[in-house]
Amino acid sequence: MKARIRNAVLALTAISTAVALAACGAGGESDSAEGDAPMIGVLLPDVTTARWETRDKPLLDREIKELCGDCAIEQTNAKGDVAMQQEQMNSMITKGVDAILLVAVDARSLAASVRKAVEAGIPVIAYDRLAEGPISGYASFDGEEVGRLQGQALLKAMGDEVPGAQIVMMNGDPSDPNAVLFKRGALAVLTGKVKIGKSYDTLQWRTEAAHLNMSGAIAALGVDNIQGVYAANDGLAAGSIAALKANKVDPVPPVTGQDAELRAVQRIVDGEQYMTVYKPFEPEAAAGAAMAVAAARGESLDRVARDEVTTRDGRRVPAVMLTPVSVTVSNIKDTLVKDGVYTIRQICTSQLAAACTSAGLT
């Protein structure tokens, strides 16, 4: 596990170095029109999931500036609104940015905007979510592997109750291509081994929707008839756990998650959430930044990306695909703390002191 994280960082360091050299060129001049400094648009999808504003935004800003010190960066957040993101795309096109790094709110709805940008000579890099339309590149994690890790962890946590255990599936937003991949990966592991009592797709990944749906699942299945919860990310895990506790489900069954949010890590330490999936943010941001800078400079992305993905329309595009990591209470110290995502002091509040000691977080 440690080796996978280390290898990802080393690989992205090499990528960043290559792009920096390519970007400088023989004379270090920009390929932008009339020698102007390149401008890169960064479009984030929402504020519901903490990572976009707290992790990705500052990391992308830093990585782009390290590769291209004179690059101007235009960052926006659509706050979960498709129409707003379409307007933001139009604004980027009007401003004449040299490349767009896009996390689509709704991949299908943004396809026309992606096409419009490309027709205006602006390459679009899909970041974390595989956008539709004529994208030039993609930087993300293996979505099906995320789902497989979640499913495997849930089976392990339920132990002797498998086979025959009944679970609730709290899937992500079906308009997010990643949510489809997470679900597919999880089902590949869970199908035939557990009974799926209820399954929900959660529009806009809303925590409150997960809470409402879990309350409905408890009413339909019974308090004692849920042995596990597949939650596609930490926000859905939070809503599910809150509903379980409000309905006096004790003990709370194993619940999965994703994104390694601080509150989720604290719930794992406290025994309320079983696991989360850690997707090292720095390598992903480094890959996205490297591709965006290369695209803005007019360089081939083949020099940056070592992988390929197939888009919905069947095209093969350059990609950087990274490996996610399963995190439970037993390896928080060797993953999140070791990588500097959180300090023990951040995780271990006074209320969690005893639990942290038991977990070896001292």
Structural summary, described in words:
α1 (2-24) packs parallel to α10, α3 packs parallel to α4 (111-119) and α7 crosses α8 (234-246). This protein starts with a helix and ends with a helix. Helices cover 45% and strands 16% of the residues. It is an alpha/beta fold. It contains 13 helices and 12 strands. A 7-stranded mixed β-sheet has the order 2-1-3-4-5-11-10, sandwiched between helices. The protein has helices at 2-24, 51-67, 82-95, 111-119, 143-158, 177-190, 207-221, 234-246, 262-270, 281-297, 333-337, 344-347, 353-358; strands at 39-44, 72-77, 99-102, 124-127, 137-141, 166-171, 195-201, 228-231, 276-278, 307-310, 316-322, 325-327.
Layout of helices and strands:
Blueprint: H1 2-24, E1 39-44, H2 51-67, E2 72-77, H3 82-95, E3 99-102, H4 111-119, E4 124-127, E5 137-141, H5 143-158, E6 166-171, H6 177-190, E7 195-201, H7 207-221, E8 228-231, H8 234-246, H9 262-270, E9 276-278, H10 281-297, E10 307-310, E11 316-322, E12 325-327, H11 333-337, H12 344-347, H13 353-358
Report the average pLDDT across residues: 91
Please work out how many helical segments DSSP would assign.
13
Estimate percent helicity: 40-55%
How do the SSEs run, as a string of H and E?
A: HEHEHEHEEHEHEHEHHEHEEEHHH
- Rounded to an integer in angstroms, the radius of gyration calculated over CA atoms is 21 Å
Shape summary? globular
The span between the termini is 21 Å
- Tell me the number of strands: 12
Largest sheet data = 7 strands, mixed
By secondary-structure content and strand pairing, the structural class works out as: alpha/beta
Amount of beta strand: 15-25%
Provide the low-confidence segments as ranges: 1-34
**Strand arrangement, largest sheet?**
2-1-3-4-5-11-10
